[in-house]
Amino acid sequence: MSDNQNLLAEQRRALILDEVRRRGGVRVNELTRKLNVSDMTVRRDLDALARQGAVEKVHGGAVPVAEATAHEPGFEAKSALELMAKEDIARAAAKMAAHGSAIALAGGTTVFALAQQLVDVPDLTVVTNSVRAADVFHSAQRTMTATGPSPRPGAAMVVLTGGARTPSDTLVGPVADAAIRSLHFDVLFIGVHGISVEAGLSTPNLAEAETNRHFVRSARRVVVVADHTKWGTVALSSFAALEEVDALVTDAGLPAGARREIAERLPELVVAESSRGSAEG
């Protein structure tokens, strides 16, 4: 990681999180050598990650936070996790959205990253319960001209469901469920808190689980977008079995054993190419 002194803080913290999770803990002096930054920079990064609930600081370093199955982190806390992996996944998944199709985007930070990749796909109809994803499309719908802002040709038509807002800025509950039940999608792109052979797709939020069930039932094709840390994680409520999933788009950090398990059970597994380059040393 000798070139990491020029990394953005978010990228550096994503690398630190990866080290913490892979090794079960890290020491400050190890991170300063690996990242080629100062002791003070590493400590600030660990302070920021601890405030987000991503790691627990201990004397001389940090260890992973043991999450309860019902704990739901907020959007900001989750958005700092596996940042580069989410960007890789988003680029790969965006290729699955055909021009002029009707797609659904469920909530989550990986889906938010995907929304940023989809704004240039022409003539999409997008239904989402993610406030953040809807904002991405609404910001991209208009273009500046000599006479001021005007509608951008081919911009997506976006429908934001109603509902109660979760800590991850997702709209759930009866209003959202009713809106989704009445619609039909070519593709659903959905993020998860956890994915496993036994529990399938799961989330710590009971209302979100019910809304996600309606999304799955209304889609001809279900594409899960999830980084490698989600594999083997089980949250409070399951909302779909693996058999209901058509494709999983994940990152290169997924171990070979997990890839074999998934390939045996899903019609399609897409492992996104890493864009880290020299950032991995």
In total, the number of strands is 17
- Largest sheet properties: 7 strands, parallel
Structural class: alpha/beta
Number of helices: 10
Q: Could you estimate the helical fraction of the residues in percent?
A: 25-40%
- Widest sheet: strand ordering: 8-5-4-11-14-16-17
Runs with pLDDT <50, length 5+? 1-5, 68-72
Q: What integer value in Å does the Rg equal?
A: 19 Å
Mean pLDDT: 84
What topology emerges from the helices and strands here?
Layout: H1 9-23, E1 26-27, H2 28-35, H3 39-51, E2 55-58, E3 61-64, H4 75-79, H5 83-94, E4 102-105, H6 109-118, E5 125-128, H7 131-140, E6 142-145, E7 148-151, E8 157-160, E9 164-165, E10 171-172, H8 174-181, E11 187-190, E12 194-196, E13 200-203, H9 206-217, E14 222-225, E15 237-240, E16 247-250, H10 256-265, E17 268-271
Parallel strand pairs: 4-5, 4-11, 5-8, 11-14, 14-16, 16-17
Antiparallel strand pairs: 1-3, 2-3, 6-7, 9-10, 12-13, 13-15
Helix pairs in contact: 2-3, 5-6, 6-7, 8-9
How would you explain this protein's 3D organization?
The chain has 281 residues and is of the alpha/beta class. Helices cover 37% and strands 22% of the residues. The chain has ten helices and 17 strands. The strands form five sheets. A seven-stranded parallel beta sheet has the order 8-5-4-11-14-16-17, sandwiched between helices. A three-stranded antiparallel beta sheet has the order 1-3-2. Strands 12-13-15 form a three-stranded antiparallel beta sheet, covered by helices on one side. The longest helix has 15 residues, at 9-23. It is globular. The N and C termini lie close together (4 Å). 42% of the residues are buried. The model is unreliable at 1-5 and 68-72 (pLDDT under 50).
